[in-house]
Design brief:
Distance between the termini of chain B: 41 Å
Distance between the termini of chain A: 44 Å
Strand content of chain A: under 5%
Order of helices and strands of chain A: HHHHHHHHHHHHH
Number of strands of chain A: 0
Strand order of the largest sheet of chain B: 6-7-8-3-9-10-12-11
Largest sheet of chain B: 8 strands, mixed
CATH topology of the largest domain in chain B: Rossmann fold
Order of helices and strands of chain B: EEEHEEHEHHHEHEHEEHHHEEH
Number of helices of chain B: 11
CATH architecture of the largest domain in chain B: 3-Layer(aba) Sandwich
Helix content of chain B: 25-40%
Number of helices of chain A: 13
Largest interface: A-B, 28 and 44 residues
Number of domains of chain A: 1
Shape of chain B: globular
Oligomer: heterodimer
Strand content of chain B: 15-25%
Number of strands of chain B: 12
CATH architecture of chain A: Orthogonal Bundle
CATH superfamily of the largest domain in chain B: P-loop containing nucleotide triphosphate hydrolases
Shape of chain A: elongated
Chain lengths: 308, 332
């Protein structure tokens, strides 16, 4: 009896027991994501690729620019992949080690994806949130500007920017991001407008929340899922665009390289019996893109608001 | 801020609110008159019911009182101060006294916040002088007041049922100790069995905390159950305002009669005996409103003059206010 009444008073006290832990939407999404096999496979493959990128140079015996004079001129005969010469992936057409060049290419391509997508997400989210939150004339003006930008051929724009500011890696990445934010800006704007009219935002206004607190506590957290999905799908797109530019010879410059550039070089020498020059970079390129798209798809399924 | 005897807590005078509806790219936007010249008072500790069909401006009225929507015309006088004329920080501070409960309990809770954060938010905004521990204590106390276990503070809204979610909404409205709560269809989205629980909870809280309620609903039985006085809206105008029982037993306006006739009677023998005329037709568009009396297009008693002159809200002896040209002839 005594014990029972004690528990009763404890329960009435409310906080005497530890409050139950709730499941946030993020935790929910994470468990949904973890159950998605394709997406988890993508994460694992990406992790392995990054691990290879980090640890691979420890095994490498050649730098990216060192030319193997023994091989030069006889690439098809002597430059094939081999453990003996230390050219695990063979050499490129001028006798440089493909193994270290592929590792650098992976890094450069991933960087292109991350940095460019990061720039696009930062601009797009801010632009869209401001446009959607303030609405009215500001919104109209901002969105018409986006329409105009859409009408400009972006690849052309990137090339012009590269000519103007110099063909450096930084300029390339930032300019790629700077032409890719419009889609995200539109999506974020739409979502912000929808959020602004949600009842919980009205409730926050009625509860005396200041405008900044509303943006910070109610609008942004509810935008985050959408932005995460969009960003994850933007990364492979950016890698693709960077590779395309490099393929055309407008992107990364020698001695630096990216997967797109290596693929370009490899495809140029396809008919000389040096297929490994195409195969290795292409293999990693496809691997990275596939896993990124699977991860992005998984994120979208996990964070899809319709699923709630 | 003491309330003097007999003085209204809230006085709404000539409130009008319209929205611009764009008809497409090349058409001029048109005006949707959601509220037109609404006046009424709310006395301390009473429950004022507001009924009407969907689209009649009930929710717009609730939001205009709280200044969540800013009316173009009229005044909302709260304890002597016109809220329509206030803005910014002054208005924000006033929000402590007037709170709102929403129709869709889940939509009114931020899915990314825990219940504790949701209930505590008005405290953060309006009583920043409280520290974390005081705030938590107040949240626990308020949760108990609405019969929620304080153990659930760290849960998220999607883990609750509709009825529980509505209790969370009520707790959030209560936490700053308001005097007036606007309940905007607080039970319409809930199961019938849960509706009674929430209504009883509201009645209990009203009694215990000395609250004044404005209760908006399209459900006449629910409004009758809770209200002291009832205001009937049609197309953004007041058509009848009277004491609850009086309005039920002796409705004066044809629209009120029609609304009452549409309430199902659970006893068929009794239902057969009544001769109230039901409503036919659709509610006219608030963009193209009928001339004269807005209700004439559906009114069984309408005569020619109804199309020309809009009936003013007249005081009916021993009843309340009615806006109908023919209330004398129609009788009780």
């Amino acid at each position: 009896m005594l014990v029972k009444s004690r528990t009763a008073t404890l329960a009435e006290d409310g906080f005497a027991r530890l409050p139950e832990k709730g499941r946030s939407l993020w935790a929910d999404a994470l468990s949904r994501f973890a159950r998605n096999r394709a997406a988890m496979m993508g994460v694992i493959i990406l992790a392995l690729v990054i691990l290879f990128m980090a640890l691979g140079p420890l095994l490498g015996r050649w730098t990216i620019e060192k030319i193997d004079w023994d091989v030069m001129g006889m690439v098809a005969e002597k430059g094939m992949p081999s453990l003996e010469t230390g050219h695990y992936f063979g050499t490129d057409d001028v006798g440089r080690d493909l193994y270290s060049r592929v590792i650098q290419g992976i890094g450069m391509s991933l960087m292109a994806g991350l940095v460019s997508a990061g720039v696009a997400v930062a601009i797009g989210t801010f632009y869209g949130a401001v446009s959607g939150y303030f609405g009215g004339r500001i919104d109209s003006a901002m969105m018409r500007f986006v329409d105009i930008l859409y009408a400009v051929p972006t690849m052309f724009l990137v090339i012009v920017i590269l000519m103007m500011f110099g063909r450096t890696v930084e300029v390339l990445f930032v300019s790629l991001g700077a032409i890719s934010w419009m889609g995200l800006a539109r999506v974020v704007r739409g979502q912000t407008i929808a959020l602004r009219h949600r009842e919980f935002v009205e409730a926050a206004v009625a509860g005396g929340a200041r405008p900044l607190a509303i943006v910070y506590r109610h609008v942004l957290p509810n935008l985050l899922g959408l932005v995460a999905v969009y960003a994850s799908l933007l990364i492979p797109d950016m890698i693709m665009v960077e590779s395309f530019l490099s393929f055309l010879g407008l992107g990364i410059q020698d001695p630096n390289t990216s997967l797109g550039m290596l693929i370009s070089e490899g495809s140029a020498t396809m008919m000389y019996g040096t297929l490994w020059q195409l195969a290795f970079p292409l293999f990693f390129f496809v691997l990275i893109l596939f896993s990124l798209y699977f991860v992005g798809d998984g994120l979208r399924d996990a964070l899809d608001p319709k699923d709630r | 801020m003491t309330i003097r005897e007999g003085e209204p807590l809230l006085r709404v005078e000539g409130l009008s609110k319209s929205f611009m509806v764009s008809g497409g790219m090349f058409r001029a936007p048109r005006e949707l008159k959601a509220l037109q010249d609404i006046s009424f008072t709310v006395r301390p500790n009473e429950t004022l019911g507001i009924v009407g069909e969907s689209g009649c401006g009930k929710s717009t009225l609730g939001r205009s009182i709280l200044q969540l929507l800013r009316p173009e015309l009229g005044r909302v006088v709260w304890l002597g101060q016109d809220l329509v004329a206030t803005r910014g920080e002054v208005l924000r501070k006033k929000r402590k006294d007037v709170q709102i409960i929403f129709q869709d309990p889940l939509a009114s809770l931020n899915p990314r916040m825990t219940v504790g954060e949701i209930i505590a938010e008005p405290l953060r905004s309006l009583m920043p002088e409280l520290n974390g521990a005081e705030r938590r204590a107040k949240v626990a106390e308020t949760m108990k007041a609405v019969h929620l276990s304080p153990d659930m503070v760290n849960r998220y809204p999607h883990e609750f049922s509709g009825g529980q979610a509505q209790r969370i909404g009520i707790a959030r409205a209560l936490i700053t100790g308001p005097k007036l709560i606007v309940c905007d269809e607080p039970v319409s989205a809930l199961d019938v069995s849960i509706q009674a629980q929430i209504l009883n909870l509201l009645a209990e809280l009203k009694e215990r905390m000395g609250l004044t309620l404005i209760f908006i609903s399209h459900n006449l039985s629910v409004v009758r159950h809770v209200s002291d006085r009832i205001m009937v809206l049609y197309l953004g105008r007041v058509v009848e305002l009277a004491d609850g029982e009086q309005l039920y037993l002796h409705p004066r306006h044809p629209y009120t009669r029609a609304l009452l006739a549409s309430v199902p009677i659970p006893d068929p023998r009794r239902a057969r005996g009544r001769d109230l005329k039901g409503l036919s037709g659709e509610i006219p568009s608030p963009i193209d409103q009928p001339s004269g009396c807005a209700f004439r297009t559906r009114c069984p008693y309408a005569v020619a003059p109804c199309a020309e002159v809009r009936p003013p809200l007249e005081a009916v002896p021993n009843h309340g206010d009615v806006a109908c040209h023919r209330w004398r002839e129609i009788g009780e």
